[in-house]
Amino acid sequence: MSYRVPIGPYHPALEEPYKLDLVCEGETVRDADLHIGFNFRGIEYLAERRNYAQLIALMERVCGICSNVHTLSICQAIERLAGIVPPERALYIRVVMAELERLHSHILWAGIAGKVMGFKTMFMTSFELRENIMDALEAISGNRVNYAMNRVGGVNRDIEDPAALLHMIDGIELALNRSIIPIFTKNHTALSRCVGVGVLTNEQAHSLAVVGPTARASGISQDIRRAAPYAAYDRMSFDVPVETSGDVRARLVVRALEILESCKILRQALSTMPAADWWGSKKKLKVPAGTVVSRIEGPRGEVLYSVTADGASDTPKRVRVRTPTYANMPAIRTMLRGARLADAPLIQASIDPCYSCTDR
Amino acid sequence: MNELEQIASSLGLPETWEERNGSWWMAPASLDVRVMAAVLRSHEARFVTLTAMQLLPDERIRIDYHWDLDGRLLTFTTFAVENRVPSIVDLCEAADWVERETHENFSVEFTGRPYEPLLLRTGDASGLQLRKERS
């Protein structure tokens, strides 16, 4: 006999509101229904009523973790439509901000995963480490969440002393190699909760078109930074970690290795940043008619913005936002089928979901 | 013949690809979206999303289908006919949520599939968000 277990929309196992309806037989999950929309703010509707400067501030609020991803995407889209090329230093600063954001997002997720596993030491260790990155972001931008760094044609602030950040990156890498990576790859408690749990096969990942670390943990090697480089990523040398087992452990390992790759990118960007203008064009923005698509690799995967302008007004006619969690969330249903009920919170957390992004 | 030309040929489209702002665009006079989905899936293209838009009140709904082919973003532009477009969800399960969301935002009917609310709640009216004549 089957029974239903509702989790959410407001539940200690969920970081933000959404709802899972689990159909169980005994302790085994047979199926799951996902219900989203609890954070729906009508941002695409609002975007058609904001001018291009206001639009950046609006899009920064799509997500409370990867806010920089959204301003970068929208600025890149407008720049492409208007034919604006930002100065080199601005492109490097964008890479630094994007990688610092990826670092704090991945380390945040490592802490959440530790908490969901009941591994509180891991939670505390991760959040302590993450504070260093938040401090760096605050030192650069003056803010911890909405950095307001990107503007159309450049960035709003310079990184005056790039070398000062290198010491922080060394510390993060050391802490990762000393504690977080060994815990996630060798510790018996962590492995017993992750290995063979919530499997998404390569075939399923292709069929569901998942993106980012969720896809790379199932053997799909795509990373937009490499496949369709933007900002200054074509000048950076880095590896794209890929695992093939498709379980929670694989998703965990991919993110842990991506943190090390982010450190590698940050070192390159900070040490080779050209000394030049970072503000960009001071001319009045004129956006011609047309549609443009912009993609970037956020911490959770590919973000796509489609912007359509009519060339006459100072507001866009249409802004479409496709966030990575929107692409990845339907896969939770597949991952949960056949899983133990007790693993459901960890499995759903393993895609590093951002529900506010998803609902917009 | 390169892969993009092969795709256009398989779809029987006389139009050529236009590379614009880092992605490839195709706006065929007539496009069977189900054949498009089948052909692109056979080329192992990844469905990224679709973008619906209505630029003026009472204008037909335009739908851009975005696909990723080894890092290249391909976009097919088509229009809803009498507010209807065939669903591709049985050919491409990744299109499920976005078809439901587009139905809610624009009242577009994706034919041949069941609906349940995605961002809205049961009983909420569709098409109020992004249709120009209603919003």
Keywords:
heterodimer, A: 360 residues, alpha+beta, three-stranded antiparallel β-sheet, 15 helices, 8 strands, globular, B: 135 residues, alpha/beta, five-stranded mixed β-sheet, 7 strands
Could you explain how this protein is built, in words?
The complex is a heterodimer of chains A (360) and B (135). Chain A has helices spanning 43-47, 52-60, 67-82, 88-117, 120-141, 163-186, 188-194, 202-208, 212-216, 224-227, 248-271, 324-328, 330-336, 344-349, 355-359, and strands spanning 2-7, 19-25, 28-35, 150-151, 154-155, 290-298, 301-309, 318-322. Chain A is an alpha+beta fold. The longest helix of chain A is centred in the first third of the chain and has 30 residues, at 88-117. Chain A is globular and about 70 Å long. The two termini of chain A are 38 Å apart. Chain B is of the alpha/beta class and 135 residues long. Chain B has 3 helices and 7 strands; from the N terminus they run αββαββββαβ. In chain B, the strands form 2 sheets. Chain B has a 5-stranded mixed β-sheet. Chain B has a two-stranded parallel sheet with strand order 6-7. The A-B interface holds A 36-37, 40, 42, 44-45, 48, 80-81, 206-209, 222, 224, 226-228, 290-293, 295, 302, 304, 306, 308, 310, 317-318, 320, 322, 326-327, 329-330, 359 and B 20-23, 44, 46-49, 51-53, 55, 64, 66, 68, 70-73, 75, 92-94, 96-98, 105, 117-121, 129-130, 135.
Q: What is the string of SSEs of chain A from the N terminus onward?
A: EEEHHHHHEEHHHHHHEEEHHHH
Global structural class of chain B: alpha/beta
What is the helix fraction of residues of chain A, given as a range?
40-55%
Strand tally of chain A:
8
Within the largest sheet of chain A, what's the order of strands? 1-2-3
Strand residue content of chain A? 5-15%
Number of helices of chain B: 3
Strand order, main sheet of chain B: write it out: 1-2-5-4-3
Q: Rg of chain A to the nearest angstrom?
A: 20 Å
Q: What is the average per-residue confidence, as pLDDT of chain A, rounded to a whole number? A: 91
